[in-house]
Design a protein that fits this description.
2 copies of one chain form a homodimer.
Chain A: H1 18-31, E1 40-41, H2 43-49, H3 54-66, E2 70-72, E3 78-80, H4 85-109, H5 112-130, H6 137-154, H7 161-184, H8 191-203, H9 207-226
Antiparallel strand pairs in A: 1-3, 2-3
Chain B binds a DNA duplex through α3.
Chain lengths: ~240, ~240
DNA sequence: TCAAGGATTTTTCTCGAGATTTATAGAAGA
DNA sequence: TCTTCTATAAATCTCGAGAAAAATCCTTGA
C-alpha cells in the first residue's frame, strides 16, 4: 500500500517524544476550546503550562500548523486558527465531496474485515448514544471519539490515502464547530436514527442511498451551527 | 472571505525568517530531486548546507511535514517522503476530484478580474511553451512555474479555500513525479494544444467540456509516468 | 484632548551544548 | 559461518540564554 501519505495518529498513540506529547495535549485543548479561536499562543507562557522547553513547544506548534489548527505568522508568533460560519460551510462541503467519494469506494471494495469493523464501530457508537441523555461531559467526549471512529470505519476500505488524510483534517476542524453547537443548542435531531440508516445502507452496499444519507447527516450539523448567534464567531481575542 | 485556511506562499515570498528561508530552499531541493525520495535527512549535515542552526533546521523540516514532502518518525529523525506509482495514481485522482469541482465553481462565479488573470496566465504559459523546444533546464523551470500559475488561475474564483489548499498540496506532490517523466521520457504530447482547448472552454464557460479536458489532460501525465521503469520508484535509500 | 515620537518591555527567533536514544561495528560463543 | 551480545559511534531530542524584532507605554508638543 501507499506509504507516502502521512497517516494520522490513531487517536491515542503513546507519545514517543516530548514534542509529540505537547502536540497532542495542545491539539486537544484547541479543539475543546481551552484556547479559543484567534487566541495568541505565546511560547513563553505555554511552555510552563505544558512543562517543556521553549524550543520544544515551538516544534509542537509547528506540528499543529499541519492540522490547520494553528497559524504561524513570520516574526509575529502563533495563533489559534480563527473560525467563521463561512469556514464551516467550506469545511462541510469539501468534506462531503471527499467523504462521499471515499464511501462509494469503500462500499465497492470493502471485504469481510471491513464489514466486521463497521459493525463493531456502530455498536460502540450506539452504546455511547444511549448514555448520552444526561449532560455528562465525559460521555459526550466518548461519543465524539466513537462518532469519529464510526465515520472513519465506513470509509476505511477506500484505497485513497490522500482522501482519508484530508478527510481526517476536515473532520478534526469540524469538531471545533460541533462542540459549539452542542454547548449552546441542544439539538432535537435523532442522531441515532441517522446513524442507523447510514449503517443499514452501507452494509446493504446501497451506494446511492448511503451517500445521500451521509450528505443529509452532515448538512444537518451545518444547519445547526448556522443557527448559532454571530457572537460565537467573533474570535479575534488578544490574550 | 474565509481566513481560517492556511494560504500557501504564492511561490516566491521574501522569507521573513531563517526558518522560512531554509524551508523554501529545502522544498525546492526536494521537489527537484536534490534530496531523492526516501532519503534520510540528517539535521547535523543539513544545517551546514543550508547555513542555519540545528534547531532552526528542525523547524524547517517540521514545516515540510505540512506539505507531506517530509515524514517525521519520532526519535528517528526525518525522511523525504517516498514515492510510488500507486501514490501518484492516488494523487492524480484525488487532485482531479478537487480540481474539477473547483473549476466548475470558478466557471460559474468568476468575474472580469478572474477572466483577465486567466488570459494573462495563459499568455505567459504559451510564451514559455514556445521556448521549451531546446532542452534548456532554465526554460523548463520557468514553464513549470507558469503551468502551475495557469492551473491555479483557472480555479482561483472558486470560493472554497480548503479545496484550493488541498489542490495546492497535491499539485506540489505531482511536481516531483512530473519531473521524473520529463527527464527520462520526452513526451510526444502536444501540451500546448491541450492548454489551448482548456483555455477556450473555460472562457466560454463550458463547464462540461472544460472539466472533461482537464481530466484528460491530467490523466495523460499519469499515463506517461506509468510508462517509467520501476527502478524510479525504488526510493528506499540509506544516506 | 489628541497625535507623534521615542524609550522600555515583551516576545519571537536563533544558536550551541548536554542528555537520550538509536544505529553501527566488533568480539565472543555456538 | 552465523547469531548474539557488548562497546563504540552517531544522530536525535531537549533546554536555556543571547540577539533581533515587535508591541507597549510614556513623554512631549500642538
Amino acid at each position: 500500500m501507499n506509504e507516502a501519505v502521512p497517516q494520522r495518529t490513531p487517536e491515542a498513540v503513546e507519545p514517543k517524544t516530548l514534542v509529540e506529547g505537547a502536540y497532542q495535549r495542545l491539539r486537544r485543548d484547541i479543539i475543546e476550546g481551552v484556547h479559543p479561536p484567534g487566541e495568541k499562543l505565546r511560547v513563553e507562557h505555554l511552555k510552563d503550562r505544558y512543562e517543556v522547553g521553549a524550543g520544544t513547544l515551538r516544534e509542537a506548534l509547528l506540528l499543529l500548523v499541519t492540522d490547520a489548527l494553528v497559524v504561524a505568522q513570520g516574526q509575529r508568533g502563533f495563533r489559534v486558527s480563527p473560525i467563521s460560519i463561512e469556514d464551516f460551510e467550506d469545511i462541510t462541503r469539501t468534506r462531503l465531496l471527499l467523504e462521499t467519494e471515499a464511501l462509494r469506494q469503500s462500499l465497492q471494495l470493502g471485504g469481510e474485515d471491513w464489514e466486521a469493523s463497521v459493525v463493531a464501530a456502530f455498536h460502540r457508537l450506539s452504546r455511547a448514544e444511549q448514555k448520552l441523555g444526561d449532560h455528562d461531559s465525559l460521555a459526550a467526549e466518548e461519543w465524539e471519539r466513537r462518532n469519529r471512529a464510526f465515520h472513519e470505519a465506513l470509509i476505511a476500505a477506500s484505497p485513497s490515502r490522500w482522501i482519508r488524510h484530508f478527510q481526517h483534517i476536515l473532520y478534526q476542524q469540524s469538531e471545533r464547530y460541533r462542540r459549539l453547537s452542542l454547548f449552546s443548542h441542544p439539538i432535537p435531531r435523532d442522531i441515532h436514527a441517522e446513524h442507523q440508516a447510514l449503517f443499514n445502507a452501507s452494509l446493504a452496499r446501497d451506494t446511492t442511498r448511503a451517500t445521500s444519507i451521509l450528505t443529509e447527516h452532515v448538512l444537518r450539523t451545518l444547519d445547526a451551527v448556522k443557527l448559532l448567534p454571530a457572537e460565537f464567531f467573533a474570535g479575534k481575542h488578544k490574550s
